[in-house]
Amino acid sequence: MIRVALLVAAKDLRIELRSRVLLWQVVPFGVMALLLSGLALGPDHAGNSSAGPGLFYLVTLFVALLMINRSQAIEGTPGTKASIATLGLDPAGVFLGKSLALAVELWVTGLVLLGGAVLVLHTALHGALVALPSILVTLGAMSAAGTLYGAITAGGDGSATLLPVLTLPAFAPLLIAGERSFSSALHGGALWEWWVILAVALAAYLAVGILLYGVLEES
Amino acid sequence: MMKQLSQRLLGPVTLVLLALTFWLGLWITPPDKIQGNLVRLLYVHPAVAWVALYVSFGTATIASALYLWKRTRSFVVDRIAYCAMEVSVVFIGLTLITGSIWGRPTWGVWWAWDARLTSTAILGVLALGYLALRRANDDPALRARRSAVFAILSAINVPIIHFSVQWWKTLHQGATVFTSTRTLLVHGSMAWTLLISFLGFTLLFFWLLRARYRLEVQRETMTSATLDEALASRRSEGAF
Amino acid sequence: MGYVAAGYAFAFGGLALYALSIWWRGRRGHG
């Protein structure tokens, strides 16, 4: 299972490196969304750093939706689905691999957006670095969840609009836990409860993915 | 024979219990010392919320799990899950409306980011998402599989969402006007009415589920019948 | 009492409407 996961992750990341969609499309979108979030606060509050964590996660959430779509679209390209079927790859491994690849991509984008938040939303750099572990775990949970919801909505022309409505409620507790732990890193406050939420969510998505991804990929 | 009897009694018993709830709730039970007449919503909102979250959504979840388990996989449980989820949307919507109505005179606003109402609202979007997912797939087996996995994920998310919203709400403020627990001393006629309301709305769920299920079977029969007709007429035209 | 009436109206009325919708969809033959 792990071997398959690493194979699939490497494949997805290689495709990403070659196409550079992340670099040229997703990251600029994220940066623009971050700018918009500052603008949305209005001129009096745009520099108010307390909104930083929440806006960072809100933007990351929407960026993740785009990337989930892309992660599933890769599977649809001619040749990919056929090769996976003929190789008889363990679906749990495929799930872990795709989640890992998505996580790596989200981490890279997340780091850029974090830098953006520090710069334009005046989030404290030191606090942002302290929050880094919680940010990486939150994005990891989002990747596992996203891979599952991506598989549920794969194919058909409705998937771009269907994916968000299915995924955003699942992202809600991740947004809450992520934002609260980020804020705690900045201003102090309760921390362990949010780690519990993140740990439980991550464990749940990994478990469901390992057990049920095969069901989704049945033909 | 017992099964047939209980099937036929479901409707009438439901109506009797609901009528009792209505009458006891609005007239017979006394007003509360603190909340006054507002307490009468106690006989409506908690029961509707209970059905929405546990009975209705729970049925949809269990049916979905049964579909995913190969030994019990069948379109019967898939249909049950779908119908139960549709009924859930109705009950969740009413939970939010009655909760909001109760909240307005209590909190002064229609929406105070009460932890339970907020979690319920998210649950409502999940249930709507399930219905949207059903409409997005035509192939019955694919649709059933995807819906079932989504339902399981949603069920797992319910406690996660609940705790995260509750901790979000309470970790800062502590006990304030916005605490969602309305502690009431429920005794005497109030307790009986509360029990009757829970029973009544629960039975109502099963009655609605049965009705909706029959509708769904009828719908599927008609769809396949229309398809057969269309194929037959195409064949007679020599299209095949 | 207005709030109570509204609450009861929405709850009982809403569920009655839903029951009616099931019956009506059956008659229309569409579901």
Strand content of chain C is: under 5%
Computed Rg of chain B = 22 Å
Largest interface: A-B, 31 and 30 residues
**Secondary-structure element sequence of chain B?**
HHHHHH
**Biggest beta sheet summary of chain C:** none
Helix content of chain C: over 70%
State Rg of chain C. Answer: 13 Å
Q: N- to C-terminal separation of chain C?
A: 38 Å
Largest sheet of chain B: none
- Strands of chain C, total number: 0
Number of helices of chain B: 6
End-to-end Cα distance of chain B? 50 Å
Give the amount of beta strand of chain B, in percent.
under 5%
Overall pLDDT level of chain C: 89
Any idea what the shape of chain B is?
globular
Structural class determined from secondary elements of chain C = mainly alpha
Uncertain spans of chain B, ≥5 residues at pLDDT below 50? Answer: 173-181
In short:
The complex is a heterotrimer of chains A (219), B (240) and C (31). Chain A is mainly α and 219 residues long.
Q: Any chance you could write out the topology, listing elements then pairs?
A:
The complex is a heterotrimer of chains A (219), B (240) and C (31).
Chain A: H1 2-19, H2 21-40, H3 52-76, H4 80-87, H5 91-120, H6 125-130, H7 132-153, H8 159-187, H9 192-217
Chain B: H1 2-28, H2 45-68, H3 75-107, H4 115-135, H5 140-173, H6 189-236
Helix pairs in contact in B: 1-6, 2-3, 2-5, 2-6, 3-4, 3-5, 3-6, 4-5
Chain C: H1 2-28
Give an overview of the whole structure.
The complex is a heterotrimer of chains A (219), B (240) and C (31). Chain A has helices at residues 2-19, 21-40, 52-76, 80-87, 91-120, 125-130, 132-153, 159-187, 192-217. Chain A has 219 residues and is an all-alpha fold. Chain B has one domain. Chain B has six helices and no strands. In chain B, helix 2 (45-68) packs across helix 6 and helix 3 packs across helix 6. The termini of chain B are far apart. With 31 residues, chain C is an all-alpha fold. In chain C, 23% of the residues are buried. The A-B interface holds A 148-149, 152-153, 156, 158-159, 162, 165-166, 168-170, 172-173, 176-177, 180, 189-190, 193-194, 197, 200-201, 204, 208, 212, 215-216, 218 and B 68, 122-123, 125-126, 128-129, 132-133, 136-137, 145-146, 148-150, 152-154, 156-157, 160-161, 163-165, 167-168, 171-172.
